[in-house]
Structure formats: structure tokens, C-alpha cells
Amino acid sequence: MSRFFATLGQTRHSFDSLSQVMACASPRRSGDELAGLAAQNDEQRVAARRVLADLPLAVFLDEPLVPYESDEVTRLICDSHDAGAFAPVASFTIGEFRDWLLSYAADSAALARLAPGLTPEMVAAVSKLMRNQDLIAVASKARVVTAFRTTIGLQGRLASRLQPNHPTDDPTGIAASTLDGLLFGMGDAVIGINPATDSVAASTTLLHLLDEVRERFAIPTQSCVLTHVTNSIQAIEQGAPVDLVFQSIAGTEAANAGFGVSLSILAEARDAALSLKRGTVGDNVMYFETGQGAALSADAHHGLDQQTVEARAYGVARAFSPLLVNTVVGFIGPEYLYDSKQIIRAGLEDHFCGKLLGVPMGVDVCYTNHAEADQDDMDALATLLAVAGVNFLIGVPGADDVMLNYQSLSYHDILGLRHQLGLRPAPEFESWLDRMGMVDSAGRLAPPEPLVRRLLTSEAGR
């Protein structure tokens, strides 16, 4: 007889394993249905949540969802667990943990102390018991601050990644998109390009381009070309100006192998980037991207629901002290997140789980053109995330990435959130905007035409 069961009315609902409880307790999403893991109906989903709420939080320390012997991510999670940090909540059930997180006692300092004691499975489990408003309320209390040339994650700040992608990596097109973003006050988290070709030579060309722009205007920010981590290592060896090393990661060893990476390769890359000593206010040199459905699409999910596997990716990220981590929440497509309701929920879950684990979370608020979503839905998610204290958001020209063929936020969308919610850029970048005469006395960006003239005048005087 299963030890995981709940009776609702006259119906007894039994679950074969802890991983099945987790999957059935998840809000409905197309990826779990595609994998055959989702609850069969809402009543079974409620039963699974009741079972989950009564389980001890420590159950995940005793029963790894992916075997320790066969998965290096599980070994990382287990071996790095901080029992001392976990002690204050060690006696809680998952339901009691939810209640504590929503209490006044769980303030920013308490959450920061607790983070090393939490495992990804713990935060994934408690998120399944929360409404969207609960996820926002708790995440807004969790501050994760990192730094390289700018300081990201401070209270009252909203940073941005300026994403000037181009379908042919044309330097003129990239430079124009970069200038456009700077005029909207974007780029304090990173100026980051997804290269159209995955070669060391192409990446090095783009790295030099971004570094020249940064130095020419004395911009306190960091650049990144989002090429494969092994390309970044080679570029560093060749003397390229690498600020941040990028890599897409997932929550299992097999899924990471599908990306062509391992924990040892990530460690090698971090050491290489640290050796350059290019940071001025900090030494967080890694940038990771994740997304629900990545492990399932690689058939490397070990029978876990996609949100739990996603949380495990944040366990990987945490080990390398990154400057930035973001979930590309709607990028994989409707096979995994069917519509705006699922995309919005996933974005709030990912941000919540990452922040509780001590990861500096941002979100690419995005969708593909064949998903049941539109730009109004992205406006809603971006606003919810800004209220929840997201570290950074991603902006592309006109909200339309012409290289990757998906829809994101525009530069003015993020600027609008800053103005509406009283949020400011990273402090070092804000000071630069002020020195360049790009903001008024209230910290708002001035009209664009005078800004262009000021930038061109500044350039002509150099």
C-alpha cells in the first residue's frame, strides 16, 4: 500500500512515489501532460497537494528524486547542503514551511540565511502549494545581490539586459540596436548578444565590438556573447575581452550533457573568467539561462515534472556564484507552456524558486508566435515580476527578436516599469546616465532627440 495518499470525499487517491506526488501537485501545464506525468483531473491535483503539504520538508534529503549514484547534479545538491542553515525549518512540513514563508518572520535577512539550507526540490514543492500572489509576496522579500561592473539586485532597482541580436551578426545593425537600448537606459545588467553563428572567431569579433562601445562611452556595465561555454574558454585563451561566461544549463546531468557541458567544464570556465580580473565592483563572472521543458525536450527529465527539474537547474547555477541567471520562460513553445496562463505561472514560479535558493534571478518575458499568448500577457507578467522584485528583465528592439524569432519585451516596456513602480537602474549605471545628461532631476529619461545629440556630441569630443 502506498504511503502517499489522501482521501477526498469517498475517493482515495494514492501515489506511487514522491516524484508522482510532485508532478500531480503541479499546476496544469502542457509539458507535464506531454510527458504523461500530470494529474488526471483537478481532484487528483488537490489530493496530491494535500499529501505534499503534510510531508516533512526534510523528506527530500532522505529521498533524492534522481539517484545520487547516477547524476552529478543530485550529488552537487546533496553534498553542498548546509544543515546548519536548514536547522530553523528542519522540523516543518511543506505546508508549515509555506505558512512561515508568508509570515513576518521570513524577512529578507532570514531568507538569505536560509538559502544555503534549501534544496531545489524543497522550493519546488512549496511553490506548488502557493497562489501567484503568494509567489510574488515571498519573492519580493528575497534579495540576491551580485556585482561585476554594476551591482545587481539591490532593493528598489530593476536592471535590464540589452539584447541587440542581428540575424547576420552585422556590426552596424548590432551597434544601432545597442545605441537604441542605451538611449532608453537599458544595459545595466549586461549588453548580451546571441550570435547567429557558433564560432570562436565570430564571438571574438562581437566581443571586441561590445568592448569598444563600452570603453568609448565609459559605460559601467558588462558585455557577453552568448556562445557555448567551450567557445568562451577558447576566446579567453586567445586574449579576447570576456566579461561574463554564458551557458544554458538544466537540472540533470543528462540534460546538461545534451548542452555539451558538465559541472567540471563550468568550473573551468569560471576559473578562466576570474583570471582576467575585469570586474571593478565585484567578481561574479557567470551568466546562465534556463527554461522549463529543457530537460523533457532532451528526454533527460528522469520522470520529474518540468518545474521541479527547472528548480534543480538553479541548484547548478548557485554553485558557480553567477552575476545573472534568467529563465527564458516562454521560449521553448506551447508544447511545454501552452498559453499565457501557463507562461505567467511558470515565470512567477521560476523567479520564486531561484530567489529562495539564493540565485540572482531575471526573466526573459517571452513567447513564441504559435503559443496562445500575446504582448498584453507579457505586459502582465513583466509587471507582476517587477512587483516581485525581479533582478533584471530582457529587452529587444521593438519586443521582436528578428534573429531568434520570438517575442520578448521592448526597451520602452522596461523603462515604463521603472517609471510606473519607482524603480531605478543599477547605481553605477544610473550615475553614468546622470553624467551623460540623459536623465532629468527626477531620474527620468529625457526625450530621445536631445539624448542623441548629447551622445553624438560626447563622441565627437573624444
Keywords:
462 residues, 11% strand, 2 domains, alpha/beta, two-stranded antiparallel sheet, 22 helices, single chain, eight-stranded parallel sheet, TIM Barrel, EutB
Question: What report would you give on this structure?
Answer:
With 462 residues, the chain is α/β, with parallel strands linked by helices. The chain folds into two domains: 4-139, Orthogonal Bundle (Annexin V, domain 1), CATH 1.10.220; 146-435, TIM Barrel (Alpha-Beta Barrel). The protein is built from 22 helices and 14 strands. The chain has helices at 18-25, 30-34, 42-54, 59-62, 72-79, 83-86, 94-101, 108-114, 120-127, 132-139, 171-183, 200-216, 229-237, 253-258, 263-276, 294-297, 306-318, 340-356, 375-387, 411-421, 427-435, 448-460, and strands spanning 4-8, 11-15, 146-147, 151-152, 159-162, 190-193, 223-225, 245-248, 286-290, 324-328, 361-364, 392-395, 400-401, 406-407. Strands 7-6-5-12-11-10-9-8 form an eight-stranded parallel β-sheet. A two-stranded antiparallel ribbon has the order 1-2. A two-stranded antiparallel sheet has the order 3-4. Helix 7 crosses helix 9, helix 9 crosses helix 17 and helix 18 (340-356) runs parallel beside helix 19 (375-387). The longest helix has 17 residues, at 200-216. It is globular. Belongs to the EutB family.
